[in-house]
Amino acid sequence: MKLQRSTVILVGMALLLGAGVLIAESQRSRSPQTAEVGPQAGALLGFAESEVTTLRVERQGETLLLERQGDGNWQMIQPQRSPAEPGAVAFLLSRLNTDAPLQTVTMAPDQVADFGFSDPAGTVTVTLQNGTDHVLILGGPEFSGSANYAIIDPPTWPPEPEGAPYEVLVVNRDIANGINRPLEEWKMPVESPSQEEASPSTTPSPGAETEAPVPAGESPPETEPGSGKPPEETN
After folding, report:
1. Is position 117 within any domain?
2. Predicted TM-score (pTM) above 0.90
3. How many domains does the chain have?
């Protein structure tokens, strides 16, 4: 029985397709898998969170210094020494390496006060494993009130009076929220022991014998050695 030419062609195409799938699968299994997604294109700062070793946040006269430990957990060094809340750190870092600026404007050196940079709302310094520092200076609110002005990695600061104009970014309000988070929210909550654990119980266990109180002026009855009972009277 002879196979039709069209049938032979279809069988050949199926074989070729199957071979292509096998080759693609073998190549994919050999290629290394990336466990972490890098920073998104156009983000404020280009880094992966796992590369950050130190996070410094300066806001309104207070400085927070946080360091990543060898086990990956964060430790607050300043203004208090305490395990850091990982959610607070992750929130701010994720805003820096995923959020894109809403708009870009130009600021002349004599316009620092107009953009709120004469008294910045906060300054964030991120130190990476290779020793590179990235700085974000947060200025005042944008005219709509839903965003803030920010400067990334300025060449000099404060601006020189006769210097070149600065590129100013309009950033999401979440950046300000992450910087101005209350201090207690930067620290890992410490669970206090319950009242039952703090004060041991003084209630006698069931079946335990209790001694009756002795009236004032009387001595307790003598007991036979080892019996706990008063001795019997003899005539």
Report:
1. yes
2. no
3. 1
